Amino acid sequence: MQVETLSDVLDWTKAIHTNLADCLNHCGEGTESERLKMLLDYLAHHERELSRVLELTKQHATPAALNTWCYEYFEKYPVKPHEECHAEFRDMDTRQVVATLLAAHEKIIGLYRYLHSRAEVTSTRELLEQLMELEEHEAMRIARDTARMEDL
Fold first, then answer.
1. Closest residue by Cα to residue 92 from 35, 21, 20, 49
2. pTM attached to this predicted model
């Protein structure tokens, strides 16, 4: 996937969340641990919903923001949004799954922060702030909800 504009970034981010959802769902089907299956199912649903919200965000964003060039970041840090699911979540415990998923969210947040720091147009900065808040809140929600699951 060639990522050049902020519109492409949204497509890339959506692809990452969709891929995570598919992988979590796939791994959930193959695990024998009921606790892990419940966690993987919850996280897959969560990632799919986040992908849907990103699509809605893109539909409502201003064309000026979406057409902002941001290829510089991706020249330095090439990305692969459609990685294969190697069923790694199936072999992890619940804490490792959550840590891996939160690390993925942190990478996305880092990208948004970088792009925000370089944005010169108000509409672009506002869109990136909205995206950062969305990812940060969703990461906090995952951490909170999975901590509650651990308490059960």
1. 35
2. 0.89
